């Protein structure tokens, strides 16, 4: 694992931002794809794991595996300590306290837990402390037109269950939106605002702190989809002031099968648990049950212990690199992606224009060639990307598209891989016989 960081400015060569020796930590990257060295440009979908993360989970399973929070044996104590220390590590990474971090299956599950808890509150569960979550016909839920389905469908269903109205902040022709757009929708009837910190399609970085201030001014709660921000830039939920947030381990060098729900402590303690059962309760009778405070009230059943340990190791890996350095590296790659893509004739780049901040991802449309065909051509050149609507059909529909091809970078991405992507993309129209 790499040690130490260096102070850098934006004029530093991109490949000096993170040493090339870092790639030795990722055995997955040392392979060929269709006879070419692999250029993995699909980290926005799932990131690869360094050896340290793989070893941490394996070591836990080999030497410490036991049922956490169950029984009083030495082995259970060791396992429980590892489990809760992982929670503390992840909490510190995002500016939270340990009781504000709930383990979930993934970020989608985390968002659903809030939506389902609010639906239960509206149905009268949770007691007086759950009143803050109760919605009715006079209330509004606000999302954006750019949301991932995971941050849209749960709110559609919550609105249907409670009679609340679902409204959305419209996007511009480039898929972005502004605080002024948000202010035109968020108002006195708004009870919840849910939005993505960074768009997984356009790379747009939302004005999160300003939206939080606006929503709170109207007495609304805020949930932040942080799947594309926590892995890539310093993120402090307490400093942003959000009430809830969700992110996934597998997008930040960690394992699949575990995500994180962040919530302000007093809100989590008041939110009815969406799932109930073992490990969540204080007292159970044949007529009723009382629940533990957060986070245990939400973690019913067998917990994802080895995954939590591995996620904590991923956090330590990123901390060693330094999130400011990770962000600088990716900001430089984002500029290169935009510059290289924008100069290719016949290619439509989705999202913020050159010179505007964006994440290190680029979704493109090649008129006359379906995104799936674009992706297969790139695949034949050893370049792995994502194709489709990226779980954001309403956004693609607003942009007049059915699908796009997305290249997304991470800590291990090099300039050579960006150049290879651009060079191959420039050949797509000729290959398919489409005039430029």
Automatic annotation (TrEMBL):
Keywords from UniProt, A to Z, are: Pyridoxal phosphate, Transferase
Kindly list the biological process annotations in GO that this record carries: cysteine metabolic process
Q: What chemistry does it catalyse, as a reaction equation?
A: (sulfur carrier)-H + L-cysteine = (sulfur carrier)-SH + L-alanine
Identify the cofactor(s).
pyridoxal 5'-phosphate
Q: Which residues form the Aminotransferase class V domain?
A: 40-421
Write down the PROSITE patterns for this protein, in alphabetical order: AA_TRANSFER_CLASS_5
Entry EC no(s): 2.8.1.7
Q: Does the keyword Transferase apply?
A: yes
Transferase: is it a keyword of this entry?
yes
> What domain of life does the UniProt record list for this protein's source?
Bacteria
An MF annotation (GO) of this entry = cysteine desulfurase activity
Q: Matching CDD domains, A to Z?
A: SufS_like
One family from Pfam that matches here is Aminotran_5
The text of the family note is: Belongs to the class-V pyridoxal-phosphate-dependent aminotransferase family. Csd subfamily.
Summarizing the function annotation, the protein's role is: Catalyzes the removal of elemental sulfur and selenium atoms from L-cysteine, L-cystine, L-selenocysteine, and L-selenocystine to produce L-alanine.
Q: What is this protein called?
A: Cysteine desulfurase
């Amino acid at each position: 694992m790499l040690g130490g960081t260096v102070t850098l400015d934006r004029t530093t060569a991109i490949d000096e931002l993170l040493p090339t020796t870092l790639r030795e930590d990722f055995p997955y990257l040392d392979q060929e794809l269709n006879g070419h060295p692999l250029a993995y440009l699909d980290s926005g979908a799932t990131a690869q794991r360094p050896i340290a993360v793989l070893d941490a989970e394996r070591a836990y399973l080999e030497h410490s595996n036991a049922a956490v929070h169950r029984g009083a044996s030495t082995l259970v104590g060791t396992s429980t300590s590892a489990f809760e220390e992982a929670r503390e590590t992840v909490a510190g990474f995002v500016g939270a306290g340990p009781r504000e971090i709930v383990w979930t299956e993934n970020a989608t599950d985390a968002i659903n837990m809030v939506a389902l808890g609010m639906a239960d509150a509206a149905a009268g569960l949770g007691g007086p402390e759950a009143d803050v979550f109760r919605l009715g016909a006079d209330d509004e839920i606000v999302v954006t037109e750019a949301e991932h389905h995971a941050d849209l469908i749960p709110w559609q269903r919550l609105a249907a269950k409670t009679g609340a109205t679902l409204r959305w902040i419209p996007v511009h022709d480039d898929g972005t939106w502004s605080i002024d757009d948000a202010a035109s929708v968020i108002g006195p009837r708004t009870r919840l605002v849910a939005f993505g910190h960074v768009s997984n399609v356009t790379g747009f970085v939302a004005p999160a702190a300003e939206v939080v201030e606006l929503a709170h001014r109207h007495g609304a709660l805020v949930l932040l989809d942080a799947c594309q921000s926590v892995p890539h830039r310093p993120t402090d939920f307490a400093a942003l002031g959000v009430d809830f947030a969700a992110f996934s381990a597998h997008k930040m060098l960690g394992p699949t099968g575990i995500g994180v729900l962040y919530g302000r402590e007093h809100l989590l303690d008041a939110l009815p648990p969406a799932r109930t059962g073992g490990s969540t309760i204080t007292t159970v009778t044949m007529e009723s049950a009382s629940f533990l405070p957060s986070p245990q009230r939400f973690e019913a059943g067998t917990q994802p212990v080895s995954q939590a340990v591995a996620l904590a190791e991923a956090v330590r890996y990123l901390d060693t690199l330094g999130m400011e350095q990770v962000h600088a590296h990716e900001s430089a790659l984002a500029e290169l992606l935009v510059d290289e893509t924008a100069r290719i004739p016949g290619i439509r780049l989705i999202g913020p224009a050159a010179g505007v901040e964006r994440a290190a991802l680029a979704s493109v449309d090649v008129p006359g060639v379906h995104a799936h065909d674009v992706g297969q051509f790139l695949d034949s050149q050893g370049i792995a990307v994502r194709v489709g609507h990226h779980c954001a059909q309403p956004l693609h529909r607003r942009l007049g598209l059915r699908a796009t091809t997305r290249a997304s970078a991470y800590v291990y991405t090099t300039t050579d891989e960006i150049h290879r992507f651009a060079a191959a993309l420039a050949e797509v129209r000729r290959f398919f016989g489409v005039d430029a």
